[in-house]
């Protein structure tokens, strides 16, 4: 029961952090847009044509998010779930990661992003098919599964460390 409560809280927190941020500044999230929309943004001069890599601000934002997720998951798993071993930390955190990852794919991306006019970039309003690129979001969901592995490995190690500190 605790796992599912944590999963719901994780999905809510993800929504609270991501949705307003995307609405407020969609260009900051351009790396999460389908390729055709990114290409149009380059054509329109919304971003530099030579900008291929993620901007440093995006890398910092994602790194801080990963570190925050690692710490919060480890704390929750030790103090709420009673996790004490690397395996408990890794598998519980990966289960939570997968739950939020697929919530992001199917609810945030497929139901909201693909159909919300609030995320459309100026000059891309005619690109409905590109915004409805469900396959792109599904591939990103698969990528997210892989991205979760090193994060959850860190959580597993953090759980062991925290459990040792708690038990004295």
Structural features, described:
The chain has 6 helices and no strands. The chain is mainly alpha-helical. It is elongated and about 60 Å long. The two termini are 28 Å apart.
> Which descriptor suits the 3D outline?
elongated
Report mean pLDDT, rounded to a whole number.
Answer: 92
**Class from secondary-structure proportions:** mainly alpha
List the total number of helices: 6
Compute the gyration radius: what is it?
Answer: 18 Å
Helix proportion: over 70%
Q: What is the N-to-C order of secondary-structure elements (H for helix, E for strand)?
A: HHHHHH
Number of E-state strands: 0
Features:
single chain, mainly alpha, 72% helix, elongated, 6 helices, 168 residues
Provide the fold topology:
Layout lengths: L1 H23 L10 H9 L12 H24 L6 H27 L15 H4 L2 H34 L1
Helix pairs in contact: 1-4, 3-4, 3-6, 4-6
Could you write a compact summary of the structure shown?
The protein has 168 residues and is mostly helical. Helix content is 72%, strand content 0%.
């Amino acid at each position: 029961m605790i796992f599912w409560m944590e999963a719901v809280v994780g999905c809510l927190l993800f929504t609270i952090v991501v949705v307003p941020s995307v609405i407020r500044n969609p260009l900051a999230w351009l790396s999460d847009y389908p390729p055709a929309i990114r290409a149009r943004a380059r054509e329109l001069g919304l971003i530099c044509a030579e900008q291929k890599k993620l901007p440093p601000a995006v890398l910092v934002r994602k790194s801080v998010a990963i570190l925050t997720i690692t710490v919060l998951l480890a704390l929750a798993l030790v103090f709420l779930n009673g996790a004490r071993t690397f395996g408990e930390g890794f598998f519980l955190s990966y289960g939570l990661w997968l739950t939020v990852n697929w919530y992001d794919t199917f609810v945030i991306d497929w139901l909201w992003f693909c159909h919300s006019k609030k995320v459309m970039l100026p000059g891309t309003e005619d690109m409905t098919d590109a915004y409805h690129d469900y396959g792109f979001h599904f591939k990103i969901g698969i990528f997210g599964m892989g991205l979760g592995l090193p994060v959850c490995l860190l959580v597993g190690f953090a759980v062991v460390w925290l459990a040792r500190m708690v038990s004295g």
